[in-house]
Amino acid sequence: MKFIFKLLAVSGAMVLSTIALATNVRAASIKIGFTVVPGKGYTVATTGKNALYSKPGTIRGAKQILSKAKMKRIGSYSKADASAYVFHGVNNRDKGSTYYFHAYGYQVTNTGSVYYKVVSQNGKFRGYVYGGKKVGIITGGIKKVQTIRKVSIPSYLSGDVGIATPGKIWNVVPYTQYKTKIVGKMTAGVTTTIPHLAKFKIDSAAMRTRERDTYYHVVPQDNSKLTGWVNAKYMRKYSEIQSDWDVK
Length: 248
What we know:
By secondary structure, the protein is of the alpha+beta class.
């Protein structure tokens, strides 16, 4: 009987120790409070190795916003995803450049874990994700990525160009940086925010890494004062734009 009681006592102590250990692991404290990432922050992709939380994940009260499985899904982009974008003109669900994240701050726990404050490029998700043990050297739940690559400007667009309806001018290549916004939109009516006969020059070109579509950076050659990035499918030689609007 004494042996049984001792065994039960030992077992009970082990359970209590396990609970205490789990509680201690779960209840880390903050060593370095919220600190803004230097410069413009980091553009990152999620890896699926760690979930997204409302606060650093090991801090008491942290709530899961996105599971590891969801983080893996939105952080990957396959050839099939790229093909679907080309075929349909839109991305598959939870896919594309809109699901890159912008890391703009961090906190460090007493265990040395760095948790980055991130927001998705479309603004849909925001929270903390584990990013390694040293600020600036990102591992774990996120990784630094190259969202665009430079490409050549085709010779037939080396002169004056215009924008066809319903082209848009963006402040950055869409969703490859934070924040993305529309600077102007070409419409057929009087409500257009890009003048129908606005004249531009292209000074650089870039391809999005995920969607593999091309955008041209345009600068005004008249008094429109609009500059930014335009999807290649809406760029035309200026003579074609004049012809579209019956101008000779």
